[in-house]
Amino acid sequence: MSGVLTRYSMLVISTLIPLAAGCGGTDQSKTTSSTAGATPMVSAASPASVGTETPGAATAVSYESAESAFGAGRYSEAAELFSGYTTTHPENPWGHYMLGMSTWKTGEPAKALSAFDQALQLDPSHRKSLFNSSRVLLESGRPKEALQRIEKALAQEPMSNEGLRLLGRARYELGDVDQAIQVYRRALSLDERDVWSMNNMGLIYIQQDRSSEALAPLARAVELRSNAPVFQNNLGTALERSGYPTAAAQAYEAAIAVDSTYQKASVGLARVTSGEQKSESTPVDLAALSSRFQAEIEIWRGAEVVDSSVVPVATVGDSSTAAVETVSDSILVSGKIVSDSLEECESEEDR
Predict the structure, then answer these.
(1) Which helix (H) or strand (E) holds 338?
(2) Of the candidates 240, 236, 271, 237, the residue with the CA atom closest to the CA atom of residue 253
(3) Average pLDDT per run of 10 along the chain, which is 351 residues long?
(4) Is the CATH number 1.20.140.10 carried by domain 140-319?
(5) What CATH number does domain 60-124 carry, 1.25.40.10, 3.40.50.800, 3.30.1360.40, 3.30.450.20?
């Protein structure tokens, strides 16, 4: 009898051993919560480490739930969830990246930079962390540091318009006006429909008291995306400063029609319709200006106007949204220049 029990005990033990191996700890097939079509979870630098959980961690947070909160605009909740996710999945750079995006959206740039830096420690080539951390640095008034990250990302991807736009912003904030314009020309030679480069180029001209030069790129940007209130408002500013108050009023009205809360456009419209400005004797032909700008892009493309001193092809590549996010939109109000943060769509949506 004892022999039978012994054999029976051995059989039970041998059966339980593989079950214990399969149930002990987290099922590794589910440690990365992304599914097909979701935000990529694998780091090119260390794919094997993605999804590794900290032993003894508290309740695990799924990537999908945290990303869902971010996508719904619940950024404080997303920041809390991604903070928990990075605790249980410390080796996944995407978790730290999204923690950076979430804390940036909640107005905590220092925490955002820390999270982006953690992602870059895990994967130094993490392009989105390089670009979005450079946006945070630009917004924080640290263009030199931003430039280093932008150039590193551009070295990986020299044909990226996102990177060139960021490079243009950094150059401009460092006072390199001509180089910034050249960078935007380079971006447009790669993509003639890059409306944000048109917008940013126009803003530089406005801020440099060269509003007449801003008309062509802004006219083209509005032609391509007439439902963007920012573009319409900037065109209105350029028209107003170029002596076309009637056309400026139309642009301001178009901005308000898209976004009735756009205060700067409302202020601009009130200013140009106050009766203090005379109507233009010759109407401006925005369609002709847009056509002229398209022709200029073809010339830039053919002549390859950007030289290596502006965009070193060997070391600088190209990369929004956001949104967000940022070149300033300058508008004259009571004799003073006020700024309006732009590129929020490009900044915010680069996930």
Answers:
(1) strand 336-338
(2) 236
(3) 45 39 33 34 35 52 94 97 96 97 97 97 96 96 96 93 95 96 96 96 96 97 97 97 95 97 96 84 94 96 58 36 30 29 37 42
(4) no
(5) 1.25.40.10
